[in-house]
Structure formats: structure tokens, C-alpha cells
Amino acid sequence: MKDYYKILGVEKGASPDDVKKAFRKLAHQYHPDKNKGDKEAEQKFKEASEAYAVLSDDSKRAQYDRFGSAGPGGAGFNAGQGAGFGGFDFSQFAQGGGFQGFGQNGQSFEFDLGDIFGDLFGGGPSSRRGRPRKGMNITVDLQISFKESIFGVEREVSVGGRAGTIVIKVPPGIESGQGLRVAGKGEPAPEKDGMPGDLIVRIWVEEDERFRKEGFNLVTELPVKLTLALAGGTTEIETLDGAIELKIPAGTSHGEILRVKGKGVPYESRGLTGTHAKRGDLLIVTRVAMPRKLSKKAQQLVDELKKEGI
After folding, report:
1. pTM listed for this prediction
2. Are strands 242-248 and 233-239 parallel, antiparallel or unpaired?
3. Interatomic CA distance for residues 256 and 230, integer angstroms
4. Nearest-5° angle of CA 259, CA 262, CA 268?
């Protein structure tokens, strides 16, 4: 008996979303368009598709959980007529069409691969049966600095097999791992009237030793001498906008947060009066440096402070 849950790599109690995500992952890995001539990948794609056809349907999933892949009559879920495996017409997969098979008592069921694969294979409505197929999407990686991720940047990327480059506008505040889509810059359509695929640019942000991002705020740590923490004063600190003078209040404690407004991540705020450009804040976490050794004079001064009750 085929274990459809094992084929998709999910638990028996997996949610419909988990089942769909697991199928999308396997379909992306073993799709015939990406593994031409690979019989093993073709077989894995067939098995994953068969498993999804059952587990994505509540009634068929309930029947499978009760009777197994053979079904109550022993004929199986896929006992209908047709080419391919178990009644499924596999030729439609390579053409980007829907998936059709036959359930109990010859009742047909169908799901649209375009709805499942989405932009993984340039699917969606344009790839449905009877419509021209969309070209494959192309994914490229782009590494940017932390500062560029905060303020945004324009970068040129090369797409394999093409002359020239494409200018990518990276918006301010982008997170590492996010993707930017450039419509129509993917693979050409495989059919005359089809649409080209898209270019997906995956952004990877380098870490910064000084700053980290928390929402629209930036966070940094500042070593502070004990005397400065006690008496207060000013010190120069670096921000992503350049150096500024920071006031340290008298009596600043270790781990205290000092806020510099408007030195964080740029963003747009939408309100009744329109869209306004704003920025988060810079949060500075103080790290009061305690001296490991004291000179004789410094020890005397500390002793004097003790007498004062400090």
C-alpha cells in the first residue's frame, strides 16, 4: 500500500496548507521541465502528484485514511481509464495543464497545476488548459550591504545567457531573503502567444557588526566609561548617516537605552492627509565599562565616594 503521507513528507494530521506546501516543494524539485529525461525524477513527480490528488480532497483523504490506497473496493483511487499512471494523464503535466484522474465509481476529479505551482514554473491563469503557456521564471541572488538594505539601492544584475544587465531598484528596509519580481524578464514563452516569465531577484543582506534592525528602528551598543556614566557628558558615535554628538545623561546605568529620533529605517506612513516619508529611531544600548584595576589615587577617590554613600 502506498503511503501518501510519507511520499509528501508530512504527518498524518498535516493541515491542507502543509500538504500543499509539501507538494509544491516536491513538484518544484522533480518537475519534468527541470529534469528532462530523468526517469527517477519523473516517477517521483508522478507519485507526489498522485498523493496530492488524494490528500488535498477531504472526502478522498478520509477514504484513504480508512481503507488505504486500495480504496474500499480494492480498485484504488485511480482506477479510471486513461494514459499515464493509475488513470492519470501525465502528458498534461509537461504542458502545464490541469491534473485529471478518476476516483471511486469512475467519478472524475481535477485540480489545476497552475494554482498549485504558482510562480514556481511561470504558472497561474495564463497556463491553464487552452491558453498559451507562460515562460519559466528565472531566479538570481543579489548580495547587498546592511546600509544598502536600510536606505535602498540600485544595482545591476546579469541574467545568464543574455547580453547586458538589468537595473534592480532595492527598496529601503528590505529583509534578507526577500525577493523582488521584475515582470517579463524571465524565460521566453514556449508558445507564440504566451507571456515571458519573470525575473525573481532574491536579496541577501550582509550582517553589520555595529547595527541590527528591529522593525523600523536600528539598535547599536555603546561602550561608556564609568566616569562618563556617573558625571554625564557627550561622546561621538557613528550612525548610518555619519558621526553625531550624543549626550550621555549623568547617572546613566549599564544597559540603559538612549534614543536618537529619525536615525532609523526610512518608511512611508499613510494617513488621511496622504503618504508621508518617515524614519524610525536609533536605539543605543549603553555598556558601562568597569575598570579591572584601579591606581592608588583612583582607589582613594572610590573610597571617598563610598563615604558619600555612592
Report:
1. 0.55
2. antiparallel
3. 13
4. 130
